[in-house]
Amino acid sequence: MEAMVMTPQEVSEYLRVGVRTVYAWIKTGELPAIRLGKTYRIEQADFERFLRRRKTVKRPPSWQQRFDSAMQRSQRAFRDHLISQGYDPEALGDEEAESILGA
């Protein structure tokens, strides 16, 4: 497993926000993190999802509804594909699922 991880300090520096802000995002669950004793690590995939969710773009509500519907259909199709291949989608991590998708 070769997931790139960042520390809260690195996230803070990258986004140019205070490290306390990063810890607040972790505490509220907005930014998923792995707790290792008293420290945290943020996986690159989780960080990228966090950024995408916070991205602001002016689009009509109808566009967002169509996009959300398409994403749900895509996720269901991928889930059905995993099941048809003998995988348990609930047991797979993000990297494993992405690896299968790329295969």
Describe, in plain words, how this protein is organized in 3D.
This protein is mainly alpha-helical. The chain has two domains: 5-54; 61-102, no CATH class. Helices cover 60% and strands 10% of the residues. The protein is built from five helices and three strands, in the order E-H-H-E-E-H-H-H. A hairpin with a 2-residue loop joins strand 2 (34-36) and strand 3. Helix 1 packs across helix 2. The two termini are 16 Å apart. 9% of the residues are buried. The mean pLDDT is 89.
Please give a quick description of this structure.
With 103 residues, the protein is mainly α. The protein has helices at 8-15, 19-28, 44-54, 61-84, 94-102; strands at 5-6, 34-36, 39-43.
